[in-house]
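Format notes (please read before filing issues)

Several people have asked whether sequences and structure tokens are stored in separate files. They are not. Every record keeps both together, in the order shown below: the sequence lines, then the token lines. Line labels are part of the format and must not be stripped during preprocessing.
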Amino acid sequence: MMELLKSKRGSSPIFTAIVVLVFSLIISTVMYIAYVEIQTTVIRNAMKTGLANLAYTISEDTYAALRESDFEEYVATLTGESAYRTKLENTYKSDIANSIDTSTSEYTVDSIGLSFTRDGMKIRYTCICDVTFYVRLFGINMPATAKSVQVEGSHTAKYG
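Then the structure lines:
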């Protein structure tokens, strides 16, 4: 065996095999990175759709609050812990779950959360979730990478 490795005829196939292996690993890595980016974009688009539905609901409720002259109370309800906020969060989570699968053998979407802030007469909302991507190695799904996906939106309360 050592004679084969020392001879010039034996080193060429080994070098070729190593080069082919390295190139296949590079191509596999690039394809996996592209897959993760595409899936992240799909998840972000689902979050944007859910955010658009949420913005519509918040806009309607803001309009009603401004007409009744209790906008401050509405903002306090929205930014604090309340049953209304919990209802909005549950509606948002169900919108995302209806748009995409939140748990597959390839990824899981966890920690979907909403954050509301007020900037003058503008209400800002931020939606954040964590996505864990998995790789199947030797028959076992193992976490490969985790990404945080964030989507923001706002609307101005100018109805009063």
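For reference, the curators noted about this record: The mean pLDDT is 82. The helical segments are 2-6, 8-67, 71-79, 83-99.
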